[in-house]
User: Which sequence fits this backbone?
Protein backbone atom coordinates (compact mmCIF):
# COMPACT_ATOMS: atom_id res chain seq x y z
CA UNK A 1 0.00 0.00 0.00
CA UNK A 2 1.13 3.58 -0.64
CA UNK A 3 -0.26 7.06 -0.12
CA UNK A 4 -0.71 10.01 -2.46
CA UNK A 5 -1.36 13.64 -1.37
CA UNK A 6 -4.64 15.24 -2.44
CA UNK A 7 -5.22 18.95 -3.30
CA UNK A 8 -7.41 19.41 -0.19
CA UNK A 9 -4.57 18.43 2.17
CA UNK A 10 -5.79 14.90 2.75
CA UNK A 11 -4.23 11.69 1.45
CA UNK A 12 -5.29 8.80 -0.72
CA UNK A 13 -4.24 5.32 0.39
CA UNK A 14 -3.90 3.04 -2.62
CA UNK A 15 -3.54 -0.74 -2.95
CA UNK A 16 -3.22 -3.07 -5.93
CA UNK A 17 -5.02 -6.35 -6.48
CA UNK A 18 -5.32 -8.85 -9.33
CA UNK A 19 -8.68 -9.17 -11.02
CA UNK A 20 -9.44 -12.91 -10.93
CA UNK A 21 -11.40 -12.76 -14.17
CA UNK A 22 -9.08 -10.72 -16.40
CA UNK A 23 -5.80 -11.36 -14.55
CA UNK A 24 -5.02 -7.65 -14.82
CA UNK A 25 -3.74 -5.44 -12.02
CA UNK A 26 -6.26 -2.96 -10.66
CA UNK A 27 -6.15 -0.25 -8.01
CA UNK A 28 -8.47 0.55 -5.14
CA UNK A 29 -8.21 3.53 -2.79
CA UNK A 30 -9.56 5.19 0.34
CA UNK A 31 -9.13 8.76 1.61
CA UNK A 32 -7.40 9.34 4.98
CA UNK A 33 -7.13 12.68 6.87
CA UNK A 34 -3.41 12.34 7.73
CA UNK A 35 -0.50 10.27 6.53
CA UNK A 36 0.33 8.69 9.88
CA UNK A 37 1.13 5.12 10.90
CA UNK A 38 -2.26 4.77 12.64
CA UNK A 39 -4.15 6.17 9.63
CA UNK A 40 -2.24 3.87 7.30
CA UNK A 41 -3.09 0.84 9.42
CA UNK A 42 -6.79 1.72 9.43
CA UNK A 43 -6.68 2.36 5.68
CA UNK A 44 -5.03 -1.01 5.06
CA UNK A 45 -7.86 -2.73 6.95
CA UNK A 46 -10.50 -0.92 4.91
CA UNK A 47 -8.72 -1.70 1.62
CA UNK A 48 -8.37 -5.37 2.55
CA UNK A 49 -12.11 -5.55 3.22
CA UNK A 50 -12.91 -3.87 -0.11
CA UNK A 51 -10.64 -6.24 -2.03
CA UNK A 52 -12.12 -9.24 -0.23
CA UNK A 53 -15.62 -8.06 -1.17
CA UNK A 54 -14.59 -7.60 -4.81
CA UNK A 55 -12.96 -11.01 -5.02
CA UNK A 56 -15.94 -12.57 -3.30
CA UNK A 57 -18.17 -11.37 -6.12
CA UNK A 58 -16.49 -13.78 -8.52
CA UNK A 59 -18.58 -16.51 -6.88
CA UNK A 60 -21.86 -16.07 -8.69
CA UNK A 61 -23.81 -18.94 -7.14
CA UNK A 62 -25.65 -16.50 -4.89
CA UNK A 63 -26.06 -13.65 -7.38
CA UNK A 64 -29.59 -12.25 -7.26
CA UNK A 65 -31.87 -11.30 -10.13
CA UNK A 66 -31.63 -7.66 -9.05
CA UNK A 67 -27.82 -7.75 -9.20
CA UNK A 68 -27.89 -9.36 -12.64
CA UNK A 69 -30.26 -6.65 -13.91
CA UNK A 70 -27.88 -3.94 -12.69
CA UNK A 71 -24.92 -5.56 -14.43
CA UNK A 72 -26.95 -5.96 -17.60
CA UNK A 73 -27.95 -2.26 -17.61
CA UNK A 74 -24.33 -1.22 -17.05
CA UNK A 75 -23.29 -3.28 -20.08
CA UNK A 76 -25.67 -1.50 -22.47
CA UNK A 77 -24.19 0.81 -25.07
CA UNK A 78 -27.28 2.44 -26.51
CA UNK A 79 -28.93 5.82 -26.86
CA UNK A 80 -30.21 7.25 -23.55
CA UNK A 81 -33.82 7.00 -24.77
CA UNK A 82 -33.39 3.29 -25.56
CA UNK A 83 -31.87 2.63 -22.14
CA UNK A 84 -34.75 4.48 -20.47
CA UNK A 85 -37.24 2.24 -22.29
CA UNK A 86 -35.33 -0.90 -21.26
CA UNK A 87 -35.13 0.30 -17.63
CA UNK A 88 -38.93 0.69 -17.56
CA UNK A 89 -39.37 -2.95 -18.58
CA UNK A 90 -36.76 -4.11 -16.05
CA UNK A 91 -38.48 -2.09 -13.33
CA UNK A 92 -41.70 -3.92 -14.19
CA UNK A 93 -39.86 -7.26 -14.10
CA UNK A 94 -38.50 -6.53 -10.63
CA UNK A 95 -42.00 -5.67 -9.44
CA UNK A 96 -43.14 -9.13 -10.49
CA UNK A 97 -40.00 -11.21 -9.90
CA UNK A 98 -38.41 -10.89 -6.47
CA UNK A 99 -35.10 -9.07 -7.12
CA UNK A 100 -33.57 -11.08 -4.23
CA UNK A 101 -34.25 -14.36 -6.07
CA UNK A 102 -31.04 -16.27 -6.83
CA UNK A 103 -30.62 -16.43 -10.61
CA UNK A 104 -29.30 -19.99 -10.52
CA UNK A 105 -32.44 -21.12 -8.69
CA UNK A 106 -34.94 -19.62 -11.16
CA UNK A 107 -37.08 -21.88 -13.33
CA UNK A 108 -39.76 -21.63 -16.01
CA UNK A 109 -42.69 -22.39 -13.71
CA UNK A 110 -41.70 -19.68 -11.22
CA UNK A 111 -41.21 -16.99 -13.88
CA UNK A 112 -44.44 -17.86 -15.69
CA UNK A 113 -46.34 -17.71 -12.41
CA UNK A 114 -44.82 -14.32 -11.52
CA UNK A 115 -45.96 -12.79 -14.82
CA UNK A 116 -49.20 -14.72 -15.42
CA UNK A 117 -51.48 -11.73 -14.69
CA UNK A 118 -49.85 -9.49 -17.30
CA UNK A 119 -51.75 -8.70 -20.50
CA UNK A 120 -50.35 -10.41 -23.63
CA UNK A 121 -48.46 -7.40 -25.01
CA UNK A 122 -46.81 -6.48 -21.72
CA UNK A 123 -46.25 -10.14 -20.84
CA UNK A 124 -44.43 -10.77 -24.11
CA UNK A 125 -42.36 -7.61 -23.72
CA UNK A 126 -41.33 -8.62 -20.19
CA UNK A 127 -40.56 -12.21 -21.16
CA UNK A 128 -38.43 -11.16 -24.14
CA UNK A 129 -36.40 -8.78 -21.97
CA UNK A 130 -36.09 -11.39 -19.20
CA UNK A 131 -34.70 -13.90 -21.69
CA UNK A 132 -32.23 -11.31 -22.99
CA UNK A 133 -31.02 -10.62 -19.44
CA UNK A 134 -30.61 -14.33 -18.72
CA UNK A 135 -28.68 -14.86 -21.96
CA UNK A 136 -26.42 -11.99 -20.93
CA UNK A 137 -25.91 -13.69 -17.56
CA UNK A 138 -25.11 -17.00 -19.23
CA UNK A 139 -22.59 -15.42 -21.63
CA UNK A 140 -20.76 -13.90 -18.63
CA UNK A 141 -20.83 -17.13 -16.57
CA UNK A 142 -23.16 -15.65 -13.98
CA UNK A 143 -25.83 -18.23 -14.82
CA UNK A 144 -24.94 -21.90 -15.14
CA UNK A 145 -27.85 -23.05 -17.29
CA UNK A 146 -30.54 -21.22 -19.28
CA UNK A 147 -31.92 -24.09 -21.36
CA UNK A 148 -35.15 -23.84 -19.36
CA UNK A 149 -36.02 -20.34 -20.61
CA UNK A 150 -37.12 -21.91 -23.92
CA UNK A 151 -40.03 -23.45 -21.99
CA UNK A 152 -41.51 -20.00 -21.33
CA UNK A 153 -43.92 -19.36 -24.20
CA UNK A 154 -45.29 -16.04 -25.38
CA UNK A 155 -48.97 -15.26 -24.91
CA UNK A 156 -51.18 -15.11 -27.97
CA UNK A 157 -53.00 -11.87 -28.55
CA UNK A 158 -55.40 -10.54 -31.16
CA UNK A 159 -52.61 -9.42 -33.44
CA UNK A 160 -54.81 -9.21 -36.50
CA UNK A 161 -57.00 -6.56 -34.90
CA UNK A 162 -54.06 -4.67 -33.41
CA UNK A 163 -52.01 -4.41 -36.61
CA UNK A 164 -54.59 -2.09 -38.16
CA UNK A 165 -53.86 0.41 -35.40
CA UNK A 166 -50.20 0.47 -36.40
CA UNK A 167 -50.77 2.47 -39.58
CA UNK A 168 -53.24 4.85 -41.20
CA UNK A 169 -55.45 4.17 -44.18
CA UNK A 170 -55.26 6.71 -47.02
CA UNK A 171 -58.61 8.20 -45.99
CA UNK A 172 -57.44 8.51 -42.37
CA UNK A 173 -54.22 10.20 -43.47
CA UNK A 174 -56.15 12.77 -45.50
CA UNK A 175 -58.33 13.57 -42.48
CA UNK A 176 -55.28 13.83 -40.22
CA UNK A 177 -53.56 16.35 -42.49
CA UNK A 178 -56.60 18.65 -42.47
CA UNK A 179 -56.43 21.61 -40.08
CA UNK A 180 -52.95 20.73 -38.77
CA UNK A 181 -50.68 23.69 -38.05
CA UNK A 182 -48.52 24.52 -41.08
CA UNK A 183 -45.12 23.32 -39.83
CA UNK A 184 -46.59 20.17 -38.26
CA UNK A 185 -48.40 19.35 -41.48
CA UNK A 186 -45.10 19.65 -43.35
CA UNK A 187 -43.41 17.33 -40.86
CA UNK A 188 -46.25 14.81 -41.11
CA UNK A 189 -46.14 14.82 -44.92
CA UNK A 190 -42.37 14.42 -44.85
CA UNK A 191 -42.47 11.43 -42.48
CA UNK A 192 -45.23 9.69 -44.43
CA UNK A 193 -43.52 10.21 -47.79
CA UNK A 194 -39.96 9.38 -46.66
CA UNK A 195 -40.49 6.69 -44.01
CA UNK A 196 -37.80 8.27 -41.81
CA UNK A 197 -37.87 7.86 -38.05
CA UNK A 198 -38.71 11.11 -36.26
CA UNK A 199 -35.21 11.23 -34.73
CA UNK A 200 -33.62 10.84 -38.17
CA UNK A 201 -35.76 13.65 -39.59
CA UNK A 202 -35.01 16.06 -36.74
CA UNK A 203 -31.24 15.42 -37.15
CA UNK A 204 -31.23 16.36 -40.85
CA UNK A 205 -29.38 19.48 -41.97
CA UNK A 206 -30.14 21.30 -45.19
CA UNK A 207 -27.02 19.73 -46.76
CA UNK A 208 -28.23 16.19 -45.97
CA UNK A 209 -30.94 16.60 -48.60
CA UNK A 210 -30.06 17.06 -52.26
CA UNK A 211 -32.19 16.84 -55.39
CA UNK A 212 -32.14 13.03 -55.51
CA UNK A 213 -31.53 11.58 -52.04
CA UNK A 214 -31.96 12.17 -48.32
CA UNK A 215 -28.66 11.08 -46.75
CA UNK A 216 -29.49 9.51 -43.37
CA UNK A 217 -26.35 9.28 -41.20
CA UNK A 218 -27.42 10.44 -37.73
CA UNK A 219 -30.34 10.73 -35.34
CA UNK A 220 -31.63 12.88 -32.50
CA UNK A 221 -32.20 11.30 -29.11
CA UNK A 222 -35.89 11.97 -28.50
CA UNK A 223 -35.35 12.23 -24.73
CA UNK A 224 -32.25 14.44 -24.45
CA UNK A 225 -32.30 16.16 -27.84
CA UNK A 226 -28.64 15.21 -28.42
CA UNK A 227 -27.54 14.44 -31.98
CA UNK A 228 -25.78 11.08 -32.46
CA UNK A 229 -23.31 10.51 -35.29
CA UNK A 230 -24.93 7.19 -36.13
CA UNK A 231 -28.64 6.34 -36.44
CA UNK A 232 -30.40 3.48 -34.68
CA UNK A 233 -28.55 0.63 -36.44
CA UNK A 234 -25.89 0.23 -39.14
CA UNK A 235 -28.67 -0.64 -41.60
CA UNK A 236 -30.19 2.76 -40.83
CA UNK A 237 -27.33 4.55 -42.60
CA UNK A 238 -28.86 4.90 -46.03
CA UNK A 239 -29.79 7.13 -48.95
CA UNK A 240 -33.55 7.56 -49.29
CA UNK A 241 -34.68 8.27 -52.84
CA UNK A 242 -36.73 11.46 -53.21
CA UNK A 243 -39.80 10.74 -55.32
CA UNK A 244 -41.59 13.70 -57.00
CA UNK A 245 -44.29 14.01 -54.32
CA UNK A 246 -41.63 14.10 -51.57
CA UNK A 247 -39.57 16.59 -53.59
CA UNK A 248 -42.53 18.98 -53.61
CA UNK A 249 -42.89 18.76 -49.82
CA UNK A 250 -39.13 19.32 -49.31
CA UNK A 251 -39.30 22.41 -51.51
CA UNK A 252 -42.14 23.72 -49.33
CA UNK A 253 -40.15 22.89 -46.16
CA UNK A 254 -37.10 24.84 -47.43
CA UNK A 255 -39.28 27.86 -48.23
CA UNK A 256 -40.96 27.76 -44.78
CA UNK A 257 -37.54 27.35 -43.13
CA UNK A 258 -36.05 30.43 -44.80
CA UNK A 259 -39.12 32.58 -44.13
CA UNK A 260 -39.18 31.50 -40.45
CA UNK A 261 -35.48 32.32 -39.96
CA UNK A 262 -35.87 35.75 -41.54
CA UNK A 263 -39.02 36.50 -39.56
CA UNK A 264 -37.63 35.42 -36.19
CA UNK A 265 -33.99 36.40 -36.74
CA UNK A 266 -32.09 33.17 -36.11
CA UNK A 267 -29.75 30.89 -38.06
CA UNK A 268 -29.62 27.10 -38.15
CA UNK A 269 -28.41 24.34 -40.46
CA UNK A 270 -31.25 22.05 -39.38
CA UNK A 271 -33.85 21.26 -42.03
CA UNK A 272 -36.63 21.32 -39.43
CA UNK A 273 -36.02 24.37 -37.27
CA UNK A 274 -38.00 25.00 -34.06
CA UNK A 275 -39.65 21.55 -34.09
CA UNK A 276 -39.12 19.33 -31.04
CA UNK A 277 -40.10 15.68 -30.71
CA UNK A 278 -42.22 16.24 -27.60
CA UNK A 279 -44.17 19.18 -29.07
CA UNK A 280 -44.77 17.40 -32.39
CA UNK A 281 -45.78 14.15 -30.71
CA UNK A 282 -48.23 15.99 -28.45
CA UNK A 283 -49.74 17.87 -31.40
CA UNK A 284 -50.25 14.80 -33.60
CA UNK A 285 -51.68 12.69 -30.76
CA UNK A 286 -54.17 15.37 -29.76
CA UNK A 287 -55.15 16.11 -33.35
CA UNK A 288 -55.56 12.43 -34.24
CA UNK A 289 -57.78 11.83 -31.21
CA UNK A 290 -60.02 14.69 -32.30
CA UNK A 291 -60.35 13.81 -35.99
CA UNK A 292 -59.79 10.03 -36.04
CA UNK A 293 -60.60 8.92 -32.51
CA UNK A 294 -57.45 6.78 -32.40
CA UNK A 295 -53.94 6.99 -30.99
CA UNK A 296 -51.33 8.12 -33.51
CA UNK A 297 -47.61 8.62 -32.83
CA UNK A 298 -44.79 9.78 -35.14
CA UNK A 299 -43.84 6.12 -35.61
CA UNK A 300 -47.34 5.38 -36.91
CA UNK A 301 -46.42 7.52 -39.92
CA UNK A 302 -43.41 5.29 -40.62
CA UNK A 303 -45.68 2.24 -40.62
CA UNK A 304 -48.10 4.18 -42.84
CA UNK A 305 -45.27 4.71 -45.33
CA UNK A 306 -44.65 0.95 -45.37
CA UNK A 307 -48.36 0.24 -45.87
CA UNK A 308 -48.62 2.66 -48.80
CA UNK A 309 -45.56 1.11 -50.46
CA UNK A 310 -47.03 -2.37 -49.94
CA UNK A 311 -50.29 -1.23 -51.50
CA UNK A 312 -48.35 0.12 -54.50
CA UNK A 313 -46.85 -3.33 -55.10
CA UNK A 314 -43.34 -2.79 -53.75
CA UNK A 315 -41.66 -5.89 -52.33
CA UNK A 316 -41.04 -6.39 -48.63
CA UNK A 317 -37.27 -6.42 -49.23
CA UNK A 318 -37.38 -3.07 -51.04
CA UNK A 319 -39.53 -1.54 -48.30
CA UNK A 320 -37.11 -2.79 -45.62
CA UNK A 321 -34.15 -1.23 -47.45
CA UNK A 322 -35.92 2.11 -47.74
CA UNK A 323 -36.88 2.07 -44.06
CA UNK A 324 -33.33 1.19 -43.06
CA UNK A 325 -33.61 -2.09 -41.26
CA UNK A 326 -32.69 -5.68 -42.07
CA UNK A 327 -35.62 -7.13 -40.21
CA UNK A 328 -38.78 -5.85 -38.54
CA UNK A 329 -41.70 -7.93 -37.31
CA UNK A 330 -44.08 -4.97 -37.45
CA UNK A 331 -43.09 -4.09 -41.02
CA UNK A 332 -43.65 -7.69 -42.04
CA UNK A 333 -47.05 -7.76 -40.36
CA UNK A 334 -48.11 -4.46 -41.94
CA UNK A 335 -46.92 -5.68 -45.34
CA UNK A 336 -48.69 -9.05 -45.08
CA UNK A 337 -51.84 -7.43 -43.72
CA UNK A 338 -52.04 -4.88 -46.55
CA UNK A 339 -51.21 -7.39 -49.29
CA UNK A 340 -53.82 -9.79 -47.89
CA UNK A 341 -56.43 -7.01 -48.04
CA UNK A 342 -55.45 -6.30 -51.65
CA UNK A 343 -55.71 -10.00 -52.52
CA UNK A 344 -59.22 -10.22 -51.04
CA UNK A 345 -60.23 -7.07 -52.90
CA UNK A 346 -58.97 -8.54 -56.16
CA UNK A 347 -60.84 -11.78 -55.48
CA UNK A 348 -64.02 -9.83 -54.76
CA UNK A 349 -63.63 -7.95 -58.05
CA UNK A 350 -62.91 -11.17 -59.91
CA UNK A 351 -66.02 -12.84 -58.49
CA UNK A 352 -68.15 -10.20 -60.19
CA UNK A 353 -66.58 -10.68 -63.62
CA UNK A 354 -68.54 -12.72 -66.16
CA UNK A 355 -66.63 -14.20 -69.08
CA UNK A 356 -69.39 -16.17 -70.79
Assistant:
Amino acid sequence: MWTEPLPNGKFKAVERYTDPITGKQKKISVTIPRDTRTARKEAQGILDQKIEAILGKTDYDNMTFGELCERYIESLSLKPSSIITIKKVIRRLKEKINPLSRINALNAAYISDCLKDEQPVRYNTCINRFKTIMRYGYSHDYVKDISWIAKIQSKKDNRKARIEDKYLEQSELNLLLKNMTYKNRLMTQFLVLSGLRIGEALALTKDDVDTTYIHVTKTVDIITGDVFDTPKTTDSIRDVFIQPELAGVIKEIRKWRMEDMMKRGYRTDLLFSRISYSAYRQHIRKHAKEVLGKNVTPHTLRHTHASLLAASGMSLEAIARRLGHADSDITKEVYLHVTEKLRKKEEAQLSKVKFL
